Amino acid sequence: MTGIEEKANTASQASLELANVSLEKRNEALQNMEDAVRNNEKEILEANKKDVEKAKKMLEKGEYTQAFVDRLKVDSKKVKKIADMIKSVSEQEDPLNKTIKARELDEGLNLYKTSVPIGVIGSIFESRPDVLPQISSLCLKSGNSVFLKGGSEAKHSNRVLYELIKESSEQAGIPEGWVQLIEARKEVRELLEQDDKVDLLVPRGSEEFISFIQENSKIPVLGHARGLCHTYVDKETDLEKAIQISFDGKVQYPAVCNATETLLVHSEIASKFLPKIVEKYKEANVKIKGCEKTLDILKDDEIEKAEKADWDSEYLDLEISIKIVDSLDEAIDHINTHGSKHTESITSENKSRLLKFMESVDSSSVMANASTRFSDGYRYGLGAEVGISTGKIHARGPVGMEGLTTYKYYLVGNGHKVDSYSGENARSFTHKETQNLWSEKREEWSQD
Amino acid sequence: MTGIEEKANTASQASLELANVSLEKRNEALQNMEDAVRNNEKEILEANKKDVEKAKKMLEKGEYTQAFVDRLKVDSKKVKKIADMIKSVSEQEDPLNKTIKARELDEGLNLYKTSVPIGVIGSIFESRPDVLPQISSLCLKSGNSVFLKGGSEAKHSNRVLYELIKESSEQAGIPEGWVQLIEARKEVRELLEQDDKVDLLVPRGSEEFISFIQENSKIPVLGHARGLCHTYVDKETDLEKAIQISFDGKVQYPAVCNATETLLVHSEIASKFLPKIVEKYKEANVKIKGCEKTLDILKDDEIEKAEKADWDSEYLDLEISIKIVDSLDEAIDHINTHGSKHTESITSENKSRLLKFMESVDSSSVMANASTRFSDGYRYGLGAEVGISTGKIHARGPVGMEGLTTYKYYLVGNGHKVDSYSGENARSFTHKETQNLWSEKREEWSQD
Q1: Mean pLDDT value of segment A418-445
Q2: Exposed end of chain B (fewer CB within 10 Å): N or C?
Q3: Regarding predicted confidence, which is higher, A329 or B216?
Q4: Strands of B229-233's sheet, edge to edge?
Q5: A contacts of B406 (beta carbons < 8 Å)
Q6: Minimal Cα distance from A246: which residue of B?
Q7: What is the mean pLDDT of residues A158-174?
Q8: Do A325 and A346 form a contact (C-beta atoms < 8 A)?
Q9: pLDDT at residue A448 greater than cutoff 80
């Protein structure tokens, strides 16, 4: 048995116990974790300093960017933020033991569809040290064991955070081994093979990174490889709104997955709209690439011709491609062909055109007269975000803690057998929806 | 491009249109399908006759069992049943455009989490010709395109049913190519590779068959390879109920996935309970295998010693293994080690022991004082069943039409940009749950 197999067995065993740890105890453990982070700021900052110093050397060699080093850095304010985040998770509603549906099947035979943890989550992420405490808190609150593999550039920071979390949570009575750290890259390969023990992978990182994981594991993956989002400006649009939304989608924070990468503009409004938005983009130093028709309208030497590859490019930067389309259908086709099923936006004052766009575009989030940048767990009011999924199975779009749960059917009878419902004198099922709550049954039964 | 790639492109394109076909039109198409089945009984029976005749020859050669040939056979009654099943699907509630959650993010900025089709479903199944119309109806009602691959032994029956369904539904205006038939086995391999076009596989069949599919595709799989279900008779049990439930679980229909395969009995009740249940099992010709302790108590030469492999065997027949356990924990451990996460049952009059068992056993359905045989979509009141899933992602346990849907976030604003919520004078989100319905917005907008 390899080290990872052993760890997976331990995590899986712990998950069976953790599934039944009370909300009180889970929250107590989260409070312990919060305190541990607050009380060990010095230790965290020292560990982080080692990572940052190494990263600075790489920066000098030109291997890292300044932005990369900045994201890695943890200061007092960041430590406080991490502790606050853990606190906010402890304050969230319990995602477990919720009665999703209750149904009487027959007299004295009651079904409860109840939320339960998934089991063992594998979280693989790059750089940012605050991901580790965030995903650990969400997993603990939702009763899941978790494997953590951070980027090697944050090795020291991750190690100290992991140790604080493990120690403080296990002291509060959380089953030992519920949280596991992986540090070597070759261990990731082994983790990806544990499909009988690890139930879900939640990777965060670059497109290549996510694709690598999807290609190399049979474990279901929740996440997104690309965020190639579009904003479509319809012919019947309010120009001012269209400008605000197109500008916000690209410029407000271009490095993230829900930023707009391609602007589609209806040909009937292009000559009015394009000069205005392009002026604003240029003020904000956005590099612009346009289709032939765009170039014809703008007659601006600074605007490059968009190549075929541009329609499939996620720039993640102050860069945008613009295409003029002759119809709503052409816009929809372009998105369904080149998009990543992440987020698209339409600006239009014609409601039936809004509706057609929203229902025809095959993406996890579609905005009518609002920026693509809204698609985010916090803005959607889901609490802390597990990630954004562009898959269609299990959870889609911004995913909150609910995405770390599944359900279980509990059927409570009193000697009921299936044979009574067949043959002569067969009983019939009543199949009545009820307001029964598993939590009440649970309360009653635990007194016995 | 291979034939399957082309078919997958067509199905995927059709699915984008089908997602927006109205409930009225989907139901009209289902009615057309129902009529086509009823009006072409002769054609169906003739095609089926060819399959059955071929199967009978295989039966003579000893390659098929009588039960296999029986399952293949379609008569007038079965044709009527198929048509009735299509009718019942048309009468079910629309699974699409349901507002799962609605939330105001800010004034004039409203989020709708709305049910939508998954896209393209791949259904691969063995023998029984009624699976093809069932899965086609469920996919059409839920707005999905579907690939159908039946067993070669039902080739003629499946072909004629497929043609009737395709023609009658497309006549009613369902996008051409929404339903695709695969007949050659090598095409299945190609289908399994279409992970960019096929969104979900729903296979039915033997353990080897499902495992093969899980091993050979990156497409998510909904289903179960094994149904190794347990009934546990606790020490504080009502003997009569325990006998009824243990008997029903094994004998009522042993060939199915929710039948009990292993009986676990608490040692304190074993000498009272075992002679009684064994007498009943023997009357029903159940072959019994027992652990050492079981043999000691029963002292019956007809009872074989259970080998290690028996605890992992899904007999699917009148055969059961019996194990005596010394504690509730031992029963739980045995199930979590040897079970298939399908269905388990406990009989006990002690509520806290019922609770512990139900919450500790990591299976999709857990029964308290009711037979394992209840875990089934029809009995659970889910309508026609897509399948039973032992995975933990997306859908678990018996899966109804809801399992063929996912959701999409619709955000409706009025020029809203994310930038307004940051920096000085930042607006705050209101995050209020609302009773807004996407279906109402949809109705209003489609009038425009």
Answers
A1: 95
A2: N
A3: A329
A4: A432-433, A99-106, A109-117, A405-416, B365-370, B343-347, B229-233, B260-266, B319-325, B287-290, B304-305
A5: 392-393, 396
A6: B417
A7: 98
A8: no
A9: no
Phi-psi region of B205 (alpha: psi -120 to 50; beta: other; left: phi over 0): left
Percent of chain B at pLDDT exceeding 70: 100
Residue A444, C-beta contacts closer than 8 angstroms, at least 6 positions apart: B351
For B352, which of A247, A415, A445 is closest by C-beta distance?
A445
Q: What pLDDT, in 10s, does the model give residues B325-376?
A: 999 999 999 999 999 999 999 999 999 999 999 999 999 999 999 999 999 9
Instruction: Give the pLDDT score at A379.
Output: 95
Place of tokens 């007659």: A299
Sheet holding B200-203, edge to edge: B179-182, B145-149, B120-124, B200-203
Give the whole-angstrom CA distance, residue B119 versus residue A348: 27
A227 and A219 in contact (C-beta within 8 Å)? no
Shortest distance between the Cα of B40 and any Cα of chain A, in A, equals 30
Model confidence at A120, pLDDT cuts 50, 70, 90, reads very high
Tokens 């102050």 sit on residue: A318
Dist CA B224 CA B399 (whole Å): 11
B401 in Cβ contact with B117 (< 8 Å): no
Q: Would you state the structure tokens that stand for residue B128, as one six-digit string?
A: 């029984």
**Taking a contact as any Cβ pair under 8 Å apart, which residues of chain A between 250 and 269 contact chain B?**
252-253
Regarding beta strands B319-325 and B260-266, do their DSSP bridges make them parallel or antiparallel, or are they unpaired? parallel
Concatenated DSSP letters for A228-263?
Answer: -EEEEE-TT--HHHHHHHHHHHHHS-TTSTTSEEEE
Task: Tell me if A416 and B446 make a contact (CB, 8 A cut-off).
Answer: no
- The token pair at A161 is 């955070």
**How many other CB atoms are found less than 10 A from the CB of residue A314?**
17
C-alpha span between B388 and B343 (Å, rounded)? 10
Q: Coil, strand, or helix at residue A176?
A: coil
Domains of chain B: 3-98+116-222+399-404 (3.40.605.10), 229-382 (3.40.309.10)
Identify whether the C-beta of residue B401 lies closer than 8 Å to the C-beta of residue B141.
yes
